[in-house]
Structures are given as C-alpha cells and as structure tokens.
Amino acid sequence: MDETARRRMRHAARTKRDADRKNAAAALQRALDRRDNGGSTGH
User: Cβ–Cβ contacts within 10 Å for residue 23, how many?
Assistant: First the structure.
C-alpha cells in the first residue's frame, strides 16, 4: 500500500470517529434535555 492510500484510510477513520462522537454527544444532549425540561419542545 502506498503512502497516499494509507493517509486517506487514516483520515477516513478519523472522520468516522468524529462523526460517531458528534452523534453520541447529540444523543446525550437530547437525553439530558428530555430529563431536564420534558424535551426540546417543552412537552
């Protein structure tokens, strides 16, 4: 495998990890919002 392909794979893995972290943070925030004030809609 040449260096360019190796770098591209590493970057793709990092991008997926960042997306996973953002999704987890968003899910946690939604859960906290529901617990604190009945959800973002306030119901």
Answer: 10
